[in-house]
Amino acid sequence: MKHTPSLSIATGLASLEARLAQDLAYLELPAKPWVPARSHDGQPVRDVVVIGAGMCGLAATAKLILTGITNVIAYDAAPAGLEGPWVTFARMETLRSPKGLTGPSLGLPQLTFRAWFTAQWGDEAWQSLDKIPKDQWMDYLVWYRKVLDLPVQNGVRMTGISEVGDLIAIDVEGAETGRVLTRRLVLATGRSGLGGFSVPDFLKNVDRSRWAHSADDIDFDKLRGKRVAVIGAGASSMDNAAAALEAGAGAVDLLIRRKEMPRINKMTGIGSQGVVHGMHQLPDAWKWKFVDYTAETQTPPPRSSTLRVSRHDNARFFLDCGILSVKDDADGLLIETTQGSMRYDFLIAATGFSNDFNGRPEFAALAPHIRSWSDGRYTPEMGHARKSMAEAPDLGPAFEFKERVAGSCPMLSHIHCFNDAAMLTHGKVSGDIPAVSAGADRLVRGIAASLFAEDVEAHFANLVAYNIPELQGDEWVDSTPTLKKETAL
Ligand SMILES: Cc1cc2nc3c(=O)[nH]c(=O)nc-3n(C[C@H](O)[C@H](O)[C@H](O)COP(=O)(O)OP(=O)(O)OC[C@H]3O[C@@H](n4cnc5c(N)ncnc54)[C@H](O)[C@@H]3O)c2cc1C
């Protein structure tokens, strides 16, 4: 929906920004910097480097700076304004989330999407807004970064991680190239950022020109008039099917293994501050039970996304349609399914992402050492050994990795996994919009505490060296000599 500005955009935003600045001043934020500067062989050392400047990376960077940890930089491989999925491979029209979510606003009312929207289009437009258009969510994140003046460097990819004494060295390429030293590393690398795409075995030998993952850059115009298969029944399969249909695909079939469409969004249904703050403190067996049940029951695609597909006469839904094999030949793709053989020109696999660190070259030095739930945290009594869950990293209280073998890779305890892969250990506080501020708060409290502890000698030396008197010495008179004289009489 298009909204007519009720105030001039500049005036509305300028006034919001002034209010935000005032709130920050009232709260004495950002806090004063307190982490001692470090260097190594003459090279400056960052307190924290954040990889990824999508929503989680921005929230983490902002929270670090508000907490007085200011020697921070975030790098993102994407150009400015194109971070994350929103204007790249997200093919839905609006967010699924309700518009009122406070998202990455970190407890600051003027930093919410609602404040940003209302400042520009007014309260009436807010009331009539149904869901947030996805491009507008990206515009909001761009403003969030700008208004907080966050130190983000775009066009820089992290390509490697290594250990230098008690520091972490990261290799970067692009707009900045070289080796950056840091004391803490936050991986806010998104859903695909740790493992990559989850690709079913039956696609592994099929020519890449004949299929795409739903998060690939797909040229939908090339699908005009073509027979397209989409695997999956989640939000991304609907969005990709809709994009193909709207681009003029000849026919689009959704091949869905399940006998029935998932219809109930379970975790959203029980969403509460209890879930946000309590899930990560539960015993492991309970964590497993929640995530396993949600994986089993699955999150349905949004109703609007499903209707966006089904309103096309040339869209078909095939349930109980498991894929047995896919072959490519002169006539396109031959797909053997549990419902029989089917012919297509192109296939889109909306099959999600994996946590398999071995798939990413930048994590090569870490991958063999990262402790996952399968390394002892999961026991068969907890239930079904779901692969995606068993691969999940076993994280500490501030999202830090743990070593598979003690002493094999000490830097892991200074590398924080602030992305979707943390869900099994921490609950949904580092991937989706609703609780990202709670996640950033948990992350930064942990980093602040560990930096303080590591520098405890310097902080104690500061305590000893601190010598600015609060009392000038002229505020009182010592009566002891008088008392002595009196008692002597
Ligand atoms: C299609 C889609 C729709 C979604 N819709 C919703 C929704 O409606 N509501 C909701 O709550 N959640 C939604 N989500 C889930 C979640 O909110 C998003 O995935 C969100 O983008 C997560 O933010 P992030 O910062 O973790 O990851 P991202 O936004 O993906 O950002 C990660 C960033 O890391 C960068 N990066 C990765 N590796 C490197 C590297 N080696 N070097 C440098 N940079 C790197 C990437 O370029 C990227 O910009 C959706 C997710 C998807 C995929």
UniProtKB/TrEMBL annotation:
<dbReference type="GO" id="GO:0004497">
    <property type="term" value="F:monooxygenase activity"/>
</dbReference>
<protein>
    <submittedName>
        <fullName>FAD-dependent oxidoreductase</fullName>
    </submittedName>
</protein>
<dbReference type="GO" id="GO:0050660">
    <property type="term" value="F:flavin adenine dinucleotide binding"/>
</dbReference>
<dbReference type="Pfam" id="PF13738">
    <property type="entry name" value="Pyr_redox_3"/>
</dbReference>
<keyword id="KW-0560">Oxidoreductase</keyword>
<dbReference type="InterPro" id="IPR036188">
    <property type="entry name" value="FAD/NAD-bd_sf"/>
</dbReference>
<dbReference type="InterPro" id="IPR050982">
    <property type="entry name" value="Auxin_biosynth/cation_transpt"/>
</dbReference>
